[in-house]
Design goal:
Blueprint lengths: L2 H32 L6 H8 L3 H8 L3 H21 L6 H17 L2 H8 L7 H27 L3 E3 L2 H20 L4 H17 L1 E3 L1
Antiparallel strand pairs: 1-2
Helix pairs in contact: 1-2, 1-4, 1-6, 4-5, 5-7, 5-8, 5-9, 6-7, 7-8, 8-9
Amino acid sequence: MGNDARQSISDSKVDTATKRIDVIRAAQELLAEVGYAKTGVREIARRAHVAVGTIYANFGTGKVGVLQAALDERVARLVAHVDAATGDDPVDLFLDRARRLNRELVGDPFLRRIVAERDRVTEPILRDQGHAIAQMFATAAIADLNRLVEDGAVHCSDPEAVATLVRAATTGWALWDRAGQTQTDHDRMLETLLSAIRALLRTS
């Protein structure tokens, strides 16, 4: 195979990857703006400046495939952001993870819309993921805390109260958003919850 042919194949792969990213970004933006019902393959293609056939060629099932990929991509970035948390001790690290998660979700209209409209989504896989996002991080945070307690790194005076506060700190953003509260309201409530959690935890 000549150099020109190899370069052509390489350029084609780059072009395909770029188009895929463009489609995913377009789907995220569109759903955040107009909601699930009004987000269709044609609208996504128009926003991404690609042909409708390109979407089916890259995502198979059309709208469901694109939104599944868009959700997977966004959750992966969210997890990476939470995993970059820092802290001088296990409690600080635990609380910074909750803080990062909450602020990222509050600031992301795509994820907020997915969660808010989860009961109106007709495709089971997307509806289930909308429900899962609302709970998955609270469940993971509580599991992390339980491991810290079992390892003796953290002592907890009231595990049930902490679990309740963790759920509020990691899923309460959705309720606050529906109530139309501001970013300042979110931040104030979050820090109040985190302070309450800290009061119930201490390092060994």
